[in-house]
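Page 47, continued from p. 46.
Same chain as before, 155 aa.
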Amino acid sequence: MYLWNTFLFAASDAPSWFMNSIVFWGFIMLGAMTIGGFFMFRKFMKVLPKEDGMSKLDWQNYWVEKSRPLWTDETKAFLDMLVSPVPQAFRDIAKHSIAAEIGKIAVESGASEVTRDHCIKGYIVATPKRDNKFLIKFLKKNEIDYTPYQHLMNK
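Result:
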């Protein structure tokens, strides 16, 4: 009992700024873990198999591999230019998902190679709706005519 009372009194002697800083950092850590958990959950959802037995990432890998021989140096450079506004940390992931959509469009259309037309169409389809404002701004800045694909932005 004596030790317990000694511990309680010792803890109450801590300065209030110290205790407040511990609580503050506790909230910061909880917030960071929540944000990290959200992104981990999103990644986990992409790996889960769908009705056809393949996950979203499996389909992306499938379309990238299937369309690999169709890509030319010019279209690879154009794809690099299209993903240039994406922050460096996310650029590889964005490039892979956009390349998968472009490859899917090219393969399904029966093309012998990926063209600029496929790249623009795939870029628009692969870009989330919430980013359409930035997409249009980027396409206008680079003088890329997107009017034939305007209907794809409203899906």
